[in-house]
Amino acid sequence: KKKIAVMTSGGDSPGMNAAVRAVVRTGIHYGCDVFAVYEGYEGLLKGGEYLKKMEWEDVRGFLSIGGTLIGTARCLEFRERWGRKQAAANLISEGIDALIVCGGDGSLTGADLFRSEWPSLVEELVKDGKFTTEQVEPFKNLTIVGLVGSIDNDMAGTDSTIGAYSALERICEMVDYIDATAKSHSRAFVVEVMGRHCGWLALMAGIATGADYIFIPERAVPHGQWQEELKEVCQRHRDKGRRNNTVIVAEGALDDKLNPVTANDVKDVLIELGLDTKVTILGHVQRGGTAVAHDRWLATLQGVDSVKAVLEMTPETPSPLIGILENKIIRMPLIESVKLTKSVAAAIESKDFDKAISLRDTEFIE
Ligand code: F6P
């Protein structure tokens, strides 16, 4: 019987539970045993009760709940070879040789490295006397399939990541709340949103709420000049009768000399314009709450496909990452997608903003 483990890793995102539910139930449907790894890679290292065999009803109610019910953790030990060896031993003890990981680029890179090292880790475990050659015989290879859970929508090659639309919805709700009080006092509000290296949340929230101005890392504003432009735009909107101003700043926003542009920098400029200005840093409220419909169906369809991918893969198949392109669930090469995602950050650092955008828009055709 095929034994598959599913885990969530890195920052949580709404829809991760829906992904776990889909993996558990699809696995059971295809006659597999499915285990949930609790607390991310930390649970993989601890083994035992952290690897729990899941039944159909264990994931009841998971579809809509935000965060991750099986937990996540940042695990430094998994970055070390000895940690991965320990994790391999725990998986073999349970008879598991396939792992579906829902997480961001860091977690997925770790998973693929684990897969490439697996044969040598198993060999070492035999040498250490932990298992006999016969015991490890069925566990020659580890299968890894990735699902992207990230509110930032920062993975190259896929249109949306699990959690991004829920976070976007939360931001828009909060900006709507702010608008009511801002208009009452004729105030300007600078709203800082998440998205470490990616301006998707800021850009989409700005469009959806009719913001006056948006700062994102991929379109760095001209150093020393953005201040005047910002003032001019906000004043123009005021002259047209707008009673409030909304400026959305991505937490990773930059100017074209790569200096950070912070919500407070923006506030100072608006104060110079004579506007009564407040800063709201939305923080982790963006990552909380229930999953919106988009994230529920995305995670469900991708979770189903991740199990199918496990069952179809051979030891030669490169680890796939399940994505979505033009409304179709696709499989992309995990390592290439992660590499491209990293090159986006590098392109921004070398001020090649167009390249950054086109890299993230790379399409992988099956
Ligand atoms: O990767 C998602 C994200 O929400 C980023 O936008 C943000 O910078 C980061 O996680 C914060 O994560 P944490 O609070 O877990 O360190």
Automatic annotation (TrEMBL):
Signal peptide span: none
Active site: D152
Cellular localisation: Cytoplasm; Mitochondrion outer membrane
Domain of life: Eukaryota
Domain Phosphofructokinase: 3-309
Binding of substrate, residues: S150, I151, D152, R187, M194, G195, R196, E251, K278, H284, V285, Q286, R287
Residues involved in Mg(2+) binding: D105
Residues reported in the UniProt entry to bind ATP: G11, R74, C75, G104, D105, G106, S107
Region feature N-terminal catalytic PFK domain 1, mapped onto this chain: 1-366
Protein family per UniProt: Belongs to the phosphofructokinase type A (PFKA) family. ATP-dependent PFK group I subfamily. Eukaryotic two domain clade "E" sub-subfamily.
Assembly and binders: Heterooctamer of 4 alpha and 4 beta chains.
Biological role stated in the UniProt entry: Catalyzes the phosphorylation of D-fructose 6-phosphate to fructose 1,6-bisphosphate by ATP, the first committing step of glycolysis.
The protein's name in its UniProt record: ATP-dependent 6-phosphofructokinase
Organism field: Zygotorulaspora mrakii
Taxonomic lineage of the native organism: Eukaryota, Fungi, Dikarya, Ascomycota, Saccharomycotina
Residues of the full protein shown: 203 to 568 of 988
